[in-house]
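User: quick one
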Amino acid sequence: MRKPAPQRKREIVGAVLDLAAKGGPDRLTMQAVADAVDLTQPAIFRHFPAKKDLWGEVARSIAEDMTQCWQGVLCGAGGPEEKLAALVSAQLSLLESRPAILAIVFSHELQFENAHLRRIFHGLMMQFHGHLQGLLADGRSCARAGVDPVDAAFLIVALVQGLALRWSLTGRTFSLAGEGRRLLELQLAGLNAPAGRSTCEGTAR
Amino acid sequence: MRKPAPQRKREIVGAVLDLAAKGGPDRLTMQAVADAVDLTQPAIFRHFPAKKDLWGEVARSIAEDMTQCWQGVLCGAGGPEEKLAALVSAQLSLLESRPAILAIVFSHELQFENAHLRRIFHGLMMQFHGHLQGLLADGRSCARAGVDPVDAAFLIVALVQGLALRWSLTGRTFSLAGEGRRLLELQLAGLNAPAGRSTCEGTAR
DNA sequence: TCACATAATTAGTTAGCACTAACTAATTTG
DNA sequence: CAAATTAGTTAGTGCTAACTAATTATGTGA
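Assistant: Done. Structure below.
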């Protein structure tokens, strides 16, 4: 019944991740959180003085999971080519298994209200971009000469994020990781291919 | 002071687009809308019986602008290659000039609350995808043989959406259309390039 | 076993929200 | 110009949210 504070805090953060995935992070109430962990509403305020502190802890927990997920891939075996594909795959799998992350990225809380939250997630995105860029630069077979690794990495980041947005808009009806693998392969084939003409430039208004 | 209803309705929708861009669509209150058009709050309810009806009208207005923007490009001069680049450019410019659109796409209202809104925006995305796919299929120089136009179009949609998300996360600090032009060129060069090896497949976990 | 720290509760407060009822003033129309 | 229509107002309802004060129960170390 009565539990030590650190354990309770973890329980609460877990409940928030659950609830945010189901009903969205913006209308998430402290009452709903309290119900989920079988406490009264003011008890939550004992552990988190204000709601934004709760969001801060949630973001910290997500950041930890994400960087750990990436480290697992980067420290593993395989060349840059394999690691690149594995990194994207791992990221998509993580997003798929924790829908709360996307819900928070798209949330009002992050987009407008909570600058701290926004900074954390933007930082994570840039870390992800940095890993991709490094792998693209290392493995020369990942991208042909003349391709800027920074831009190429942004294309892959956009692939992940754009795909994730479509997954959200369709109500999470397809397999994020599955669709991602196919599109990534197409994308990498393009980046790796010997310099193709870019016929569509120039006349763009 | 007193105005005919259709004009007032348009004013109100305009105010919503303004306010949604600034403070986000979710915490947008009927009071704020009323203040913006110099009316009392209940006056808004004379024109829109409930808040969701207001959102419906806003979505309708955005859909109209968007399809008109696309038609302008598609009915204009130029081959498929030029049109493809122009379409993406036009879309990014539209998103840049009306930040409310992205705010709504990322909103709780759309993501969780309002299924009608979600359907409208998903429909728009698929229309955009359809146009891209058509242009890719028509202009053979836009994508090399063996590239599925459906998937290639999804890559470009993801480019637009992922870039837009990054633009939002960074607080709209860079030029959406400018960055988009550069990335699109890289993307199209890849799709157009003579079949490159896809070295990064296979070992993805 | 008894004091002490702390987890949790009960019972509020304050504020903001969508929405309504009843009424008033302006515009249009016969 | 009178009657009907319609755009707008004032005042208020009911609800739900975050957060607080005072108090009670629970586990822990001397």
